[in-house]
Amino acid sequence: MIAVENLRLGYRDVVAEGLSFVIAPGECVLLCGPNGSGKSTLMRTLAGLVKPLGGRISCGRVAMVPTGIPKVKGFTVGEFVRTSCYKSSNWHGLLSPEAVSRLDRALKLLDLDGLRDRDIASLSDGQFQRACIATALTREADLILLDEPTAFLDVPSRRMVLQVMRGLAHGTGKVLLFSSHDIHDAMEVADRVFGLFEGKLLVSDYSLESKEEVISAMM
Amino acid sequence: MSRRIVIPLLVVAGLAVLDLLVGTGGFGIAPEAVMWKLRVPRMLSAALAGSALALSGLQMQSIFRNPLADPHIMGVSSGAGLGAALFTVLCAGTAWSFAGVALGAFMGAAGASLLIIGVSGKIRSVTVLLLFGVMLGYVLSALSSLLQYIADEESLKLFYSWMAGNFSGNGMSEILVMGGALMVGIVLAMRNVGGMDAVLFGDDYALMTGVRVRRVRLLAMAGSCLMTGAAVAFCGPVGFVGIVAPHAARWVMGSSVHRKVLWMTLFCGAGMTLAADIVSQAWVMPLPVGSMMAIIGIPLIFIILWKKV
User: How many domains does one find in chain A?
Assistant: First the structure.
């Protein structure tokens, strides 16, 4: 269960305030809003990368996949995903057996087992996005935050990644909060929609009408 | 052991033997005294300086996520240059002259390094930090030019002979200092491999995996500055190894994972400086190693840029 109460966020200036919501385990939630509305700031605050200016966050372990992770040449899929197990490695970078099994599980769950030895620079954008999501899975977080996971993807890759995300939330019971500008595709897989607009958060319920209401309020 | 490792190792070993056989314009086995007093220290100096500069370059390229970052670009060598210039003006004509240049270079490199380390704790943006290093280099170079302007002929001669780069003239004590600095640098780098891997994918990504990014940057800078300071003090500002050797190591290993490329970077760095020393020593009047390195290094940098574009 993720609970946020009266959250105020920003850096020097307040970007948004009075943000309150609860997300149940296994939910896949879309966070949308115009550029500069504070979507990334909200994600970074939930991830603990930015200190909240006020309010309360209760969300257990968090993993975030930031937007625009570069495809660094010279890392296989397996090696890239294992960079996320930094905390479980010894002083020379070797993983504990427990971390190795977490890594294997994440690769299997995202259907990346067959690509384990492929260089990430040679992956399609959709495959690479799955590998990025796998890095979040290895951290065994309760809340997975994905900042624009479908940016720069073509339509088939976008749909595939969105389906993977929905399956992941429903199949593992983790909370998945993702931001996207591809609202219509994203809305199809999201259980609920959160809209950040002019410093306030609009929260839908599970019905299609309510989700559409939040989106049209931001147009 | 795989061919990827054995062949470069054999090449470096071959270059080391060849470097022992070359001296004052020709190849051949020198008398025992010349071998132990001149050629072995020169070969060890070249190998240690090359390894140290290459490992420094690898770490700087990773923490700044810039394929062209190295100790020279970050202003460490310019700091050494200013220190050397200052000491040549102060110590010229005294018994301190050569030791003074080395000491000055080491102190200059250490001063510039401490400044960069201090600033790296305050500046979050890697681009701003890199620009700070470049600007620092320009300022320090300008200050050494001013010193050269007021220096007498003897001081200038001493300074230029250091600037040209040279692996000769070092004794066991200098080699021990360089070896010690390299050892410390390797241990620090080995402790940092996982963090540097994560930092390549961005600061936010690294922070989310539990990496303390500033600590990774600080450790890498501290190790690099120590190794560069020692190498530059005793061998002059030998350029290009720091940029080229890490790329060569990644190419040889077919990987960018630090745990895999760290040792190969050391071998590639040593191989490059040994090759430059062999070419430089093969003439009747030994040519400046810095120039040889530029002639070998610049085409390699163009190839790297060509492949990146």
Answer: 1
The CATH number for A171's domain is: 3.40.50.300
Q: Does B307 or B278 have the greater pLDDT score? A: B278
Position B172 confidence tier, pLDDT thresholds 50, 70, 90: confident
Rounded to two decimals, the pTM is 0.88
Instruction: Note whether A93 contacts B198, CB cutoff 8 Å.
Output: no
Distance from CA of A120 to the nearest CA of B (A): 11
**Which residues form the domain of B76?**
3-308
Confidence of residue B308 (pLDDT cuts 50, 70, 90): low
* Residue A27 lies in domain: 2-218
Query: What is the nearest CA distance from B192 to chain A, expressed in angstroms?
Result: 8
The token pair at B216 is 């990774």
Residue A17, SS3 per DSSP: strand
Instruction: Show Cβ contacts of residue A190 under 8 Å, excluding neighbours closer than 6 positions.
Output: A28, A29, A30, A166, A178, A211
Phi then psi for residue B168, to 5 deg, are: -80, 165
How many C-alpha atoms does A61 have within 13 Å on its Cβ side?
A: 12
What's the CA dihedral at B101, B295, B142, B245 to 10 degrees? -80
Closest residue in A to B62 (Cα–Cα): A72
Q: Per the CB < 8 Å rule, is B257 touching A89?
A: no
- Does residue B309 have a pLDDT over 50? no
Place of tokens 């700087």: B60
Rounded distance between C-alpha atoms, residue B248 and residue B70, angstroms: 14
- Of the candidates A44, A66, A74, which has its C-beta nearest B255's C-beta? A74
Q: Measuring CA to CA, which residue among B112, B114, B57 is closest to residue B79?
A: B112
Q: Where are the alpha helices (DSSP H) in chain A?
A: 39-46, 77-82, 97-109, 125-137, 155-172, 183-189, 208-218
Q: What is the pLDDT of residue B78?
A: 87
Q: Mean pLDDT across the stretch A188-193?
A: 90
Q: B113: pLDDT confidence band, cut at 50, 70 and 90?
A: confident
**CB contact residues (below 8 A), chain B span 180-199, against chain A:** 190-191, 193-195, 197-198
| Cβ-nearest to B204 among A49, A80, A84 | A49
B150 versus B260: the higher-pLDDT residue is B260
Chain B residues inside the 8 Å CB shell of A135: 205, 209
**Of A47, A68, A75, which has the smallest distance from its Cβ to B256's Cβ?**
A75
CATH number at residue B53: 1.10.3470.10
B259 Cα to chain A: minimum distance (Å): 7
Cβ contacts of B207 on chain A, cutoff 8 Å: 49
Confidence class for position A122, pLDDT limits 50, 70, 90: very high
**Average pLDDT over chain B, rounded to an integer:** 86
